[in-house]
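Please review this pair:
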Amino acid sequence: MRHRIFSDPKYYIFCFVLGSLLLLTGSFNTSSAQTPPDMGVPLNPEISGDVEFWHFWSSPVRRTAIRRIVAMCQQALPQVVVTEVFKPFGDIWTANVAAVAAGAGMPDVIVEDRPQLARIAAEGIQTNLQPYIDRDGIDPARFWEFTWDQTLYDGASYGIPFETDVRVLFYNKTLFAQAGLDPERPPETWEEVWQYADQLDRINADGTIERIGFFPLIKLGPDVWAQTNGQTWIGEDGRPQINTEAFIGTLDWVNQWIGRYGGWSAIQEFRANFAAAPNDEFMTGRVAMIADIGGYSSILNFYRPRITLDDGSQAEIDWGIALLPYNVAPSSVSGGFTLSIPTGADQADAAWEFIKCATSPVAQVSWARDTYSMPSDISAANDPVLMADPKWAFLVQAMETSSTTPFFTPYPNWREQLDQRYERIWTGEIRPQQAAEEAQQAVEEISAQNP
């Protein structure tokens, strides 16, 4: 009899319906109210409000990750209702500036570009959070030092660090092995990466590019490579220094790579074949080594790309990470974002509670596990589960080589003088020396107008 009952489908339907009713009525709970989770920071669950949260994370990995954090904070702050709103990366900050200028339509919380935060704060776009920070005892030492320093304008913080990053070298171990290179020994120096490319390049008889070993301008600019050549962007006088041997030497080095692959037009034609992941240069197997932020790991893990080998077989890419190849010393650059409250936001108090929650150690661990992006909270970066992965442990170690984009108050956007000249260098219109001299002069002239 008992055997017949447990084998009857009606029994399982009955159990499913009963279980559903119990869940809906809360009969499995010993009390009607759930205890809010401990996020590792002091929160005020009595604060109420509707918080509109703007972000630009639309990929499957990151959208899921930020929604998980919003859900966690809804539990921790039961009277705060958070509505997450996606805004395209190119539009989010422009839209916020316009809303603040109009006095309406701004979000309550926005993901802000941390290297630009001091400039934005000086323009009155974001709210001074220092009174909240002092009241609630937020400890800056929780975060990587440079991430906190970037939130400061005139000694006050205008955002809480959310995530950061570190640029590293991603290399295709599968192609290394096929080319006779040791897949456990990535190149360390500029000289070595050139030599490795000799074995990885595939250039057709007509000069068209089938595969390249490495090209420095994929996802990275000359300014970052200059730091691996010993460049220091801010001199002892506190002013930008562009016209230096280190920077000019880096531009010459990039030009050598451009010449190697047939000139700027040939490289542009080659790169026109690619799109976003999983159809980018690295995942298609047509560039063997690229520099990118550590969070690119999550994209590789998500797509698990496969490539065709010389013998026609298919293979999943086995990839590794290493420090950026250097000429003088290892170096990297870290950017990242804060959570900030735009000036004029209606729900500032509720927004602040959400920011505290979303930047808490618990939320930061969740973000890092989902996205493989470096959290700004140091304890979260050293989460034991994450550190069990050798690749993650390497990224944390790589943070020791990294610095941040320097801010120069008289001319916050001084790097635009470099950006305006790069393509003229790559096409041969001007020489690196001339470009550096022109950019230096322009920065000095504009800075003099804003002492």
In short: The mean pLDDT is 91. The chain has 20 helices and 16 strands. The CA atoms of residues 78 and 274 lie 45 Å apart. The chain has two domains: 49-164+335-396, 167-333+408-448.
